[in-house]
Input
Amino acid sequence: ALSTLLAEHGVLLFRGLPLESAEDFDAFIQAFHWPNFRYADSLSNAVRSNRTERVFTANEAPSAVEIFLHHEMAQTPIYPGKLFFFCEIAPDHGGETPLCRSDRLLALMREKQPEFVERCAAEGLCYTNVMPREADAASGQGRSWSSTLGTSDRDEAAGKLASLGYSWSWLDSGDLKVTTPVLPALRMLPGGDEVFFNQLIAAYRGWNDNRNKGANSVSFGCGEEIAAADMALTCELAEAITENLAWQRGDVVLLDNYMMMHGRRPFSGSRAILASLLGAD
Output
């Protein structure tokens, strides 16, 4: 019944349950009997810390940094099908999780910017980012290349990238610059609806640190840059249909990663949101 509701709405909120800790959250997840997707096995850019085998911190970027709308790990060839979030400590101020349905966004885009949608569908997208030699906790893209690729050996790292179709170069700083293979910008859901499944908004607006510039982080599959006017309209349309989830302690949220984009509003004071990924369907 919950799976049916999730497929219909894209997100479910569980509120008022007696959940207080990472261990409680872990037990709640296991009750669903869905496959675990380990953070260690992912290509996520974010710095995170495991609290249990299944549970880890959400993106640990500084509180003033906004994490823009995205589908989890859609900038990589490997991504989860569902996500759980758990509010261990409710934010003092701000810190809401914006939620945006990608099927509705795609419908608006087809109405307002059909040529851009057609290019995205026909050419796909490529993402470029520089992975630091050491983890950079000040960045939302600060996960080190050794953590991301599961090895500190350069040859092994290169072998994994090659197997996934990436191109790469080693920088004098010891950082690693990588570009993904061409990845689709749209996805068909089991029911036949299409969604705008990618990390276009998050990469363009948010991949900014001392190694990366967001506007240069994503391109069409042919390598051509994306026009600022198209990006501005896409972001405007997405924000117009975005709803903000204000967290309460003990809340659990279940997201369909194919249907629903999410992010993080800036906050002040305390906030602790934990996460868990579930294998692709």
In short: Helices lie at 2-9, 22-30, 102-112, 114-123, 145-149, 154-163, 200-206, 228-240. The first strand starts at residue 11 and ends at 14. The chain has a mean pLDDT of 95. Residues 228-240 form the longest helix (13 residues).
